[in-house]
Amino acid sequence: MMRELPLKKILFWCPRCNVPLVGKKCGCGGEGKGIPLLRPYDARPALQADRDTITGLLVHHFGTATLPRVVILNKTGGLDRKDLVIANGERFGWLSFDPFARRHHLEVALGAVPFLLGSAEKGVIDVGDLNGARQDLRQGKRIGGKRYPCRGDLPDGPVIIRWEGHAAVGTCREGFIKVREAGKAVPVSFPDPNWEEVIRKNAHSLRNMERTAIRFIRQNTRDRRCVTVSFSGGKDSTAARELARRAGFSDVFFVDTGMEFPETLAFIRSQEVGTVLRGKDFWQEIGRKGPPRKDDRWCCERQKLEPVKKFLAGKGECITIQGNRWYESFARSSLAPVAKNPFYPLQVNLSPILNWRAFEVFLYIWWRGLSTNPLYDKGFERVGCWMCPAMLESEWERVRELHPELHGVWMDFLQEWGKRKGISPDALAAGAWRWKDIPPKMRAGK
Ligand code: SF4
Ligand SMILES: [Zn+2]
Known about the structure:
Elements: E1 10-14, E2 19-21, E3 33-36, E4 43-45, H1 48-62, E5 71-75, E6 82-87, E7 90-98, E8 103-108, H2 113-116, E9 124-126, H3 133-138, E10 147-149, E11 157-163, E12 166-173, E13 176-184, H4 195-201, H5 203-221, E14 227-230, H6 235-247, E15 252-256, H7 262-269, E16 275-278, H8 282-289, H9 298-313, E17 318-321, E18 338-340, E19 347-350, H10 358-367, H11 393-402, H12 404-421, H13 425-429, H14 440-444
Parallel strand pairs: 9-11, 14-15, 14-17, 15-16, 17-19
Antiparallel strand pairs: 1-2, 1-3, 4-5, 5-6, 6-7, 7-8, 10-13, 11-12, 12-13, 18-19
Helix pairs in contact: 4-10, 5-6, 6-10, 11-12
């Protein structure tokens, strides 16, 4: 039987300080309450672009730009981007991206209501505006899960429904409201700490995490003369590199795939990376093999592993410290902390942050005052090639906004390639090129 990994499936939150916690205990001495996370359980801070997106939707639907300073996102499966939004120690809602309409959507959860009621200037209606709902309540029936015609001209989108000390959340679509959850709810004001406060309240846990990771690196590098650090320019390898540095190792290498974001290349230049490796000409490879796909990532081997293999071949037995994490994807959740490199047996990979969530990674980076790749603040959840098939359509939309020239080059290439393959321009625009075998969810469209 496969051993169950010690994944953290719950995020603890101190109700007194209103901060998320790495462990169960808060720096104030209090104990956190648990919020169940969703697979793959990778909670992360909402950064600038995420906040801007949520705020824009709050303004649009509720007429308020008030959002707590500390918001956590928990990515989960969906058609494209789908994040559970957590704030004030509660489920706040869901942020998703519709790859066909090319728009973000926000659904609010009942947990957001006490906070939103204090500032919402629209989007809050009386239960009497739902035909038949008040009657259902009088008869002791539930309204959650039901669909009611609504009075008046209500725009499509999330709504809050109120009645005597209670509220429900729902979604309005074409004159009907689908009620999701209902319960007791009154306006509440919450303390609004910033991320520095979150770091302060978690300092003890951060110190422990660091100590454990450094001890792990030291124990597994004893008697080894060759230790390298793999740095991708992403947040995980930023944290791993810092831990390696503190353990005494700073032979850092980066692989330039040839399709790196300009932001990543600039970040790498600012980071004193000793060795920059290069893969083959990516465009030439694409010309031969077609675009890399989610289910055919030939590029990983060609553009990344091969140059690393060559680099390490000259070193013989060697250990590489890297920033892999269990929570990144279902595929990574089976990695071992010490693992032989399947492509190069003389090589051992050490993953000191395997059991860190993105939440811990960012807190650690901020606690240690390190800089991060600016792409995270610009709406990217992970950093890779600028045309990576594993990218979300919401991220590809950001590429279009930030780097229209790169976006244009790729779309032109796809149009040409799609013509030869018989893939319609609409399907290409919605991201169908990302799969060799297009999944039914993408085929169905809207
Ligand atoms: S980041 Fe994406 S496109 Fe780049 S090598 Fe990896 S899988 Fe391929
Ligand atoms: Zn506390």
